[in-house]
Amino acid sequence: MKRNRNGVAVPVFAFLAAALAAQGASAQAKISAKERTLTVMLSENANQPVKEFAPAQQEIFRNTNIKIHFEPVPASNYEDKKKILLATDSLPDIISVKQQDLNDFGSTGVFLPLTQYLKDMPNFRKFWEAIPEIRSTLVDGELYAFPVVARGEARNGPGPVIRMDLLEKHGIPVPRTWDELLSALAKLKAIYPDSVPWSVRKANNPIPRLINTTMYMLGSGAGTTGIYYEGDEKSGRYVFGPATKEFKEGLRFLARAFEAKVLDPDYAVTTSQQWTQNLTSGRSFFFNDNSGFGLNYTNDLRKKEPNAKLQVIPIPANSNGARRAEFFNTRLSGISFAINAKTKDPRTVIKFIDWLYSKEGSDITNFGVPGQTFTLDAKGEPRFVPSYVDKFKDARPSPYYAIYSDLGITKLNFSLWAVNTVSQFQIEKLTGTWSPLYDDYWKIVDADAAYRDPVMDPPLSSDEAERAKEILASLSTMLAQEYDKFIMGVKPVDQYDEVIRNARKMGSEELEGIYNKALARLRASMKG
Amino acid sequence: MLFGPDVGMKLRRSGYLYLIFALPFIYYLVFHYAPMYGILIAFQKYNIVKGIGGSKWVGFLHFGRFLSDPYFWKLVRNTLLLNIYNLAISFPAPIVLALLLNEVRSNGVKRFVQSVSYLPHFISTVVVCGMVVNFLASDGPIYGLIAGFGGKPSNFLLDPRWFRTIYVVSDVWQTIGWNSIVYFAALCTIDQELYEAALMDGAGRFSLVRHITLPGIMPTISIMLILALGKLMTIGFEKIILLYNGSTYETADVISTYVYRRGLLGADFSYATAVGLFQSVIGLVLLATANKAAKAVGETGLW
Amino acid sequence: MNSQKKLGSRAFDVANLIALAALVFVTIYPLYYIGIVSISDGTAVNRGDVRLLPVDPTFEAYLTVFRNKDIWRAYSNTIIYTVAGTLINLFFSSLCAYPLSRKDFYGRSVFTFIIALTMFLSGGMIPLYIVVRKLRLIDTMWALVLPGAVNTFNMIIMRTFFQGIPASLHESARIDGANDIRVLRSIVLPLSMPIMATMTLFYAVQHWNSFFNALIYLNTKAKYPVQIMLRNIVVASEFADQQADIGSVSTNFNVVAQNYKYAVIMITVLPIICAYPFLQKHFAKGAMIGAIKG
After folding, report:
1. With an 8 Å Cβ cutoff, are C236 and A46 in contact?
2. Residues of C in contact with A80 (CB under 8 A)
3. How far is CA B274 from CA A470, B56, B105, C293, in A?
4. What does CATH list as the number for A33-151+330-417?
5. Do B138 and A202 touch (CB under 8 A)?
6. pTM (two decimals)
7. Given an 8 Å threshold on Cβ–Cβ distance, is C198 in contact with B182?
8. What's the ipTM?
9. Which fold has domain B62-296?
10. Domain A157-326+458-528 part of CATH 3.40.50.2300
């Protein structure tokens, strides 16, 4: 497959797109014989308010005779409402869920079992066959929700971002190993004594953000709960990071960073707000987090320092000489739409969902109204109409969010084959917010072979999940109290061996066993 | 005793009162007692689709799991201690404020201070905690103050010994004004003539407070205290989640935060309900005890 | 002797004022800070430049909030819910508190116990939702005002105040032939203005700030009260880190600007501050005593 500049495979079935576009919607029979309203509950991001019956939904109605009635719930409390609706079996027709919900409630029968309908879904089947990860979403062998497939998503992940302008200004070479990074930041600290070179934001997952983003690069790993996947896709296995020697060495590095006063002394309590402030005020020069943020921060920095440049660097090599990092998942977006088991006439709903997976449905749910807000280019790919985009040039918080909200489109709305970066880049280029820095950014990340695609966790049986939860509840509480002691130098790193022993006593090896057994099951099923 | 000789007459005398009471009582039956069967979830392996009627019974399994959790005692201890510290400071503070305000002669000043003092109540917890974090940060005012006095500052949010103080102080700040409103209203109901008579007898200001003001609002204080004691085993998780971190789990991790973290790993309604029931039952016992104690010393009880 | 007393008294007054002034400063400064951040330029706020005065003042944050048409409709929803809810609250709470305040109410202890029990024992959200659903109240205003018609805590405070009304008043009304309903309406309530004002304030603020019940029971966006949208803005990115988000696509810069968040807070707080003075006149001393005399 050809790879374009963003490292994305050009869809092989582009010819289908041209054919469909030529045919036009009115020529085919509508999905639903008579008008039907489907209630869809999804999470509403504060930056992109959900409009009722926006142009995209109107277009959907015109094509399929199905009206979408949204029940948007603020993202801040989506989990609360979803849990109650699930627990009282009061779901709307279609509801946005995460894998955790499928694991928790799949077997209870609230969701419509979908495997039986696969044969009637030509469009979805293409993804089912092309993306093996979808098998990881099965619960007890049954598919309970339709995953939102990412379309043309540019890949990136947590990465190291540093003030390139300051490196240049003071003649410090771009670090290529973590040790070099440490000395580069130490040099900057000496020049700017009031700074905190490496800023981190805290997260309240069982694993602190600093460890979550950095450990894998340093040679160990911790994922979001401690369990992570080590090795290549075919032959790797699950390891409970915090109970390994490699993790200890990673802690040793972080302890050195802390002692050298390179790592923010407040790293364990800094909020997102403060983190942003540190980087945009010039108090900090480096972070290892979602690297895309560097571009936003650079814009803010430049209002006071026109030459400031926070840019991502290739992943530095760790003490084993290896460079490793992990992309965010770019084939499946992590969200799925489940169908209420009690919904009327499920066949129509299934047909409708399948249409949303088609090129035509996807174009509408991601770009709006054909001919008015988007047109198809020579390759059959949708492009926004510049005059429409122009109306939102000065919109807040950003032109693309305003457009998405106005039209009712893209990943944060109701789309099953959804774009995010494709549309964003188009809009940014049309409104002039795109800068050469962005090009550089994507080039660097794309060319960096250190990144690997993330591995989706295998489905656990409900007993296994129960046991895993039981172990993790106390294990992660014990560990959470230990990390900072070693990083901040309260206890010497060599004493971490005792923590490892404790973790093993509390069940870390059993946990690994559970995951690896499930992994073996998954691999066996994929072969057959 | 329930069916003594005068029952008939007593019932008739309360006739109209029953009429008045009927509506709110129905409300309680419908919206509080009808849903109470939900407590049964604590004794089941709850399945959503099967509902409470069809789910499997597991008896005290969840309670057992909770009580045998390695962290159980720590969580209980932290919950209790945090509440007790809070009670010790956050409870009297609004009373003191109401009394102090009462002594101010100018009505304008009184109103102004009162209006301003309750403003923090309206700032949501999330923002308050953000402010606390900013305040204690390494580039914040506390650091500056300590360094200015020649000390070696450290971030108090990382020190488990300071967590309770931070929690209580921010709580007092947020609630002192709002909670004083009740006491202020209570002060309004005190008979002015009592003051006038006492003043004519030559009583001093503190004497007035001790013998008239305090006894005047004692019923309110008593009830509030009993209710507060009933809540000793319960503490909300939102604020703690925003202020704690791994280093402070030792003092900051309470029952609700532990259950919350557990919920992140996978929903478990039965377990959460069981823990909640455990807290409620203990709370009830505490409430009943506090009520008895209050009545024993001659104060107004709850029932 | 008298001059000593006067000196002590004066000293106390001065100390009192100083303490109160300190309190005022400590409570006003954070709100002042929120105010100046809300009218400062977004980038300056991100950089942490705002300390004592607004930087590059602009009302942009407020304009953005108000340009959102949903907010206006949500605001009117909130006002309706608050007014209706508070009236229902006052009605039900008084009807509940009054009988319980009467010593001659047969069964008083038992009823109080049954009601107080509900503060501790609760079936939880799940069965309550089912009850509300069975009553067909889902997605209606009634789901917001009925389940909370009586806040037991508030009701108990009300009862305490009612108990403070001297029995002699009841007796004289009784002798005049009034039944209990008339006593409540014509004697007890008028004498209880301080507590009714307090309760109005408590309940109204509760409704004004409430978002959880609306979140759970309302499904149609057009019916949402304003707190739901505002909270989404204020909390954005605070708890986002909490979710174990494996594989979330990255470039969504989800952080909401702080000046925007703070503008939202100001919008929520200001109406209450303006409404409070109207209630304050009922916090007058001796409101009841006049009745005894007259």
Report:
1. yes
2. 212, 215-216
3. 16, 15, 53, 56
4. 3.40.190.10
5. no
6. 0.88
7. yes
8. 0.85
9. MetI-like fold (1.10.3720)
10. no
